């Protein structure tokens, strides 16, 4: 049980339920191939049935840690910090990104956009989910849109979401991992017919790194 005092700090974003932190290579999207330090924050109620980090969902299983400690760790490893989860926008991301920016670090976020955008971000990867659509200004702010393709209908969903982002937003289709063999040929064909889209793969899984 976490005390009420600590819950208040979590609600202010000065403590966060940290699941894990690791230095790796960004596997997905525009920055794939770039070394980055990942901060995985617990807590998500979006409920994607194919989510590859379901252990992140229950915030209560991830003890709250002060953002000062998270920032101090991050500075030791990389200039590029990717904040992911869970759904990081479950929490107020302003204290964390203020701390990271004060250390001159590049702040990237991986988000479904299901909750209001908080924090100061150099790069926003928006990966919208049908069961809890993005809210508010994030469509205009996203640098990349990364739609997960699990079945044929997801191409229609991808186009609906692409209609909502800015002109310069880079568009990616990423196969859902468990059905990649079935969906990759369809994604390849779709991207060749609709070249505004690019393919994104979870390259870290092929490299056997976190
Ligand atoms: C685990 S999520 C955490 C961040 C945030 N909740 C979100 O969904 O964007 C990180 C990224 O992995 C993607 N992802 C999750 N499970 C996946 C799977 N089984 N196959 C492919 N991509 C997946 C998500 O769409 C998202 O882009
Ligand atoms: N290497 C690596 N790249 C990633 N890009 C997005 C990830 C995520 O889970 O948010 C992820 C991840 O878990 N590992
Ligand atoms: S929104 Fe992200 S963390 Fe949450 S269930 Fe979906 S893929 Fe997993
Ligand atoms: Mg991942």
UniProtKB/TrEMBL annotation:
<feature type="binding site">
    <location>
        <position position="48"/>
    </location>
    <ligand>
        <name>[4Fe-4S] cluster</name>
    </ligand>
</feature>
<keyword id="KW-0456">Lyase</keyword>
<feature type="binding site">
    <location>
        <begin position="25"/>
        <end position="27"/>
    </location>
    <ligand>
        <name>substrate</name>
    </ligand>
</feature>
<dbReference type="InterPro" id="IPR058240">
    <property type="entry name" value="rSAM_sf"/>
</dbReference>
<feature type="binding site">
    <location>
        <begin position="127"/>
        <end position="129"/>
    </location>
    <ligand>
        <name>S-adenosyl-L-methionine</name>
    </ligand>
</feature>
<dbReference type="Pfam" id="PF04055">
    <property type="entry name" value="Radical_SAM"/>
</dbReference>
<feature type="binding site">
    <location>
        <position position="40"/>
    </location>
    <ligand>
        <name>substrate</name>
    </ligand>
</feature>
<comment type="pathway">
    <text>Purine metabolism; 7-cyano-7-deazaguanine biosynthesis.</text>
</comment>
<feature type="binding site">
    <location>
        <position position="84"/>
    </location>
    <ligand>
        <name>substrate</name>
    </ligand>
</feature>
<feature type="binding site">
    <location>
        <begin position="50"/>
        <end position="52"/>
    </location>
    <ligand>
        <name>S-adenosyl-L-methionine</name>
    </ligand>
</feature>
<comment type="function">
    <text>Catalyzes the complex heterocyclic radical-mediated conversion of 6-carboxy-5,6,7,8-tetrahydropterin (CPH4) to 7-carboxy-7-deazaguanine (CDG), a step common to the biosynthetic pathways of all 7-deazapurine-containing compounds.</text>
</comment>
<keyword id="KW-0004">4Fe-4S</keyword>
<dbReference type="InterPro" id="IPR013785">
    <property type="entry name" value="Aldolase_TIM"/>
</dbReference>
<dbReference type="InterPro" id="IPR024924">
    <property type="entry name" value="7-CO-7-deazaguanine_synth-like"/>
</dbReference>
<comment type="similarity">
    <text>Belongs to the radical SAM superfamily. 7-carboxy-7-deazaguanine synthase family.</text>
</comment>
<dbReference type="GO" id="GO:0008616">
    <property type="term" value="P:tRNA queuosine(34) biosynthetic process"/>
</dbReference>
<dbReference type="GO" id="GO:1904047">
    <property type="term" value="F:S-adenosyl-L-methionine binding"/>
</dbReference>
<feature type="binding site">
    <location>
        <position position="210"/>
    </location>
    <ligand>
        <name>substrate</name>
    </ligand>
</feature>
<keyword id="KW-0411">Iron-sulfur</keyword>
<keyword id="KW-0460">Magnesium</keyword>
<dbReference type="GO" id="GO:0016840">
    <property type="term" value="F:carbon-nitrogen lyase activity"/>
</dbReference>
<feature type="binding site">
    <location>
        <position position="51"/>
    </location>
    <ligand>
        <name>[4Fe-4S] cluster</name>
    </ligand>
</feature>
<dbReference type="GO" id="GO:0000287">
    <property type="term" value="F:magnesium ion binding"/>
</dbReference>
<keyword id="KW-0949">S-adenosyl-L-methionine</keyword>
<dbReference type="GO" id="GO:0051539">
    <property type="term" value="F:4 iron, 4 sulfur cluster binding"/>
</dbReference>
<keyword id="KW-0671">Queuosine biosynthesis</keyword>
<dbReference type="InterPro" id="IPR007197">
    <property type="entry name" value="rSAM"/>
</dbReference>
<keyword id="KW-0408">Iron</keyword>
<feature type="binding site">
    <location>
        <position position="86"/>
    </location>
    <ligand>
        <name>S-adenosyl-L-methionine</name>
    </ligand>
</feature>
<keyword id="KW-0479">Metal-binding</keyword>
<protein>
    <recommendedName>
        <fullName>7-carboxy-7-deazaguanine synthase</fullName>
        <ecNumber>4.3.99.3</ecNumber>
    </recommendedName>
</protein>
<feature type="domain" description="Radical SAM core">
    <location>
        <begin position="31"/>
        <end position="210"/>
    </location>
</feature>
<feature type="binding site">
    <location>
        <position position="44"/>
    </location>
    <ligand>
        <name>[4Fe-4S] cluster</name>
    </ligand>
</feature>
<comment type="subunit">
    <text>Homodimer.</text>
</comment>
